[in-house]
Amino acid sequence: MSSLPRKNMSGAEFAMDDEELATRQTIYRPDMLKGQRVIVSGGGSGIGKATALLFARLGAEVAICGRSEEKLSTAAAFIERTTGRPVFWRNLSIREPEAVERFMGEVHAELGGIDTLINNAGGQYPQNAIDFTRKGWFSVIDTNLNGTWWMMQEAAKIWRDTGKPGNIINVVCTVERGCPQMSHTCASRAGVIYLSKSLSVEWAPFNIKVNCLAVGATKTEGFRMYPPEQLHYFRKSNPMKRLSDPFEMAEAMAYLASPAAGFLTGSLLTADGGQAQWGEAWLAGRPDYFAEDNFPTGDAAL
């Protein structure tokens, strides 16, 4: 979608391989989420796949959805093989409210209920905002904001109508300092954050909790969207000077789904290595205006 030149990369070099995911130790006890019914959107790869696997390892019944049938079927087979637990999956676009409604009904019928919804699906690409096409802008906003909303609303309807409690975890990004060259995702994710805060109050009478997890530079297949020559900025984007991985984010979501987070709603949990306070990431190329050798020195700086 971006006009920037890219090298031909599959993204596999950035992903955690299945063996690492399957054998990574977790701090949580194996039965912590036993009996929980959990939906993970974007569950075919990256953070979503790691989250679905971890939740299954912790005893949850898991349903995943996404756009790629191949990724979903492969991820489901991997999780089932690793944990011995069945995984319900459907390929769909969360931009389509009718498809979301059908999926939620199917999951509710198949699993006998829904306890936690994890809205992980989303998409973006690096580009200077002035060059966004209308199609590109609508695509990101429709997926990240509208798609998340359709998922939230359909789950909430089920919880309201059945009188059961619900828990929503929305995956977003850090927006406090803005996201230059990612303005579309910044706008959509900020919308999700403040939508979540609003709904945490409005849906409290239905016993529905709504929280967000803001993820930082996390090494996934999604890195293929960025020009290789700019990827070094990810390591400069936080004071810890390192990348996270999907399993770290999955453990943060396990916390939000656990009884330990029972008093959290309307909250934004930020797991970004301190990026919100420090750092920069010019993923479409650092503009000459901000080049270090263009800053004045000596008397000229005064």
Detailed description of the structure:
The chain has 8 helices and 7 strands; from the N terminus they run αβαβαβαβαβαβααβ. It is an alpha/beta fold and about 300 residues long.
What would you say about this model in short?
With 302 residues, the protein is of the alpha/beta class. The chain has eight helices and seven strands.
Bulk shape:
globular
Instruction: Indicate the percent of residues in helices.
Output: 25-40%
**Mean pLDDT level:** 90
The sequence of SSEs as H and E is HEHEHEHEHEHEHHE
CATH class: Alpha Beta
Note the total helix count: 8
Number of domains: 1
Which regions have little confidence, pLDDT < 50, spanning 5+ residues?
Answer: 1-12
Present the secondary structure layout.
Blueprint: H1 18-23, E1 37-41, H2 46-57, E2 61-66, H3 69-83, E3 87-91, H4 97-111, E4 116-119, H5 134-162, E5 166-173, H6 183-202, E6 208-215, H7 232-235, H8 246-257, E7 268-271
Parallel strand pairs: 1-2, 1-4, 2-3, 4-5, 5-6, 6-7
